[in-house]
Amino acid sequence: MTVDQPVTDAPEQLALMPIDRQAQPSGEKLVLSLVALFFLSQLIFVLPHNRATEMLLPLVKPELSLLGLSEKWNMFAPQVRKINLHGEAIIEFSDGSVALTELPRFDRLNDSLLRRSERFSKEKLRKLCVDHLPARGFEPFLEDMARFALREYLRGQPTPAGAAKRPLTVTLVVDWRAIEGPDEQRWQKLDTRNLKSDREHGQHHTLIVYDLTAEDQQ
Amino acid sequence: MIIDRFFFAPVKPTAMALFRIMDGLILLQDLLFMRLPYFSWLYGDRPFVPFAKIETAFFGGLPFFDIMRLLPNTEAVHFALFVLTVASTVLMTAGFASRLSAGLTWVLLLSFNNHMPLVLNGQDVFLCFSILLLALSNAGDRFSLDSLGKRRREEEGRVSQRVESGERSQQRSFAPISLFSSPLAQRVLQLQVAFIYMAAVISKLQGADWLNGTAVYYVLRYEDMVNLGWPGFLDNLFAVRAATWGTIAVEAAICTLIWSKRCRPFVIASAIALHLSIDLAMSVPLFEWLFISSLILFLDDDDFERVRAVICRLVPRVVPGRPVAGRDEPLVEAARSRL
Fold this sequence. Notes:
The structure holds 2 protein chains of 2 kinds. By secondary structure, chain A is α+β, with helices and mostly antiparallel strands. Chain A is about 35% helix and about 15% strand.
């Protein structure tokens, strides 16, 4: 049977169609129960935390984790971020010198369409450097972020640092600026061409001062 | 019973087949343009976060699947698995050994997702889950190399049967088993899409800025996510409020009114408009396209026939031009009546 052939003998053909439903009604009930359980688990996972969901979460988390469903589907919600930000690392060396390096800045990709298209390939980096960096719960990974900043900095240096100039500490800082408004007096006019670095992120918040280990310095 | 019909009444695999292709194309872009350039950093010998730390600090004792834990922990092995993921995604998209290739893609993608979960977006999670359901579905029964091969084998079988029996007049075809099958996987995917929008609405309704209509004001001013931006004439409080509450309204409609056949075209049109406008204004790569693609799952056989009829009228030479309206209705009705 092909899609384009005229159907002249449908009843006969349908008689040949295997429909398991009549043969296995209990199997179907089991399947439906599993589907219901699956969506109930997800509902418990996404509902606002209260005493009941806290009690049930340990039961549903393992199965959702196994399926890779660790998402709460709450993009820009419930609270929206009200700042623009970028990350910065201050590296102190054994000779007393200090270097300042920025984590990738996505606010500097607004100059042209071509540069904006860079965001496509850098989205996973943006997730880390903007969404996660200042977020609660990301603290265990801040030292990895510090090591990442150091590695990126050293990669950009022409010659490897000698023994006299070993990096000692990395301080991770978030530079940010509040999005003002939306009341009439402080309404921030939306001009996407000006969403680049001319509005500096003038506020600073230190996330971590990380003492580098011997392993990090290799 | 309505639930039985919904989950088990046979349907054509058109929606799932189209979704399989879209899913595959989106995943290929994700793999080749978003993961490959940062492969060493994400999955290499010295990754951004050591895997042992992911295991303890991210999963914290929860069970998770990662095939890379069973293999030597080297960049070369991980890269070989990555190449295998790309290959299986290509095969899944083309519909070659569809269930097997989709199953393999799911196993590998889930492993890569779990190996570095810190960089995942909602799209990665939904994409991975949808591929699991593609592997469990009949998505390879149309628009696929599998269906082409099957059709060819059936035609060869018919020819040899006619030659053997000498009955030149016997033109009847074999049973259209591959054309109808249980839509269970498609229904679960539909419910999952509706669930995602419901979760999005629930979380928005807990946010003061969403309720007072100003959330979109802030979101549009994220310097790290600008795409083409927001037209200047819409840069006022009225438009911001309309966009904020409109987003909630459309998302609520997708999880509720989309189930009504009468409302569905309007819901789908407004959902596409919402996602396209977000995609134009903001840089949220692939996310919007994945969810636009997922709307295909809500189209039924009649919708596809209508679309096909329109295309037939517009491009008569491209699509075979025989009358299509009501073509398979007897088949569908007879199949449904058996339930």
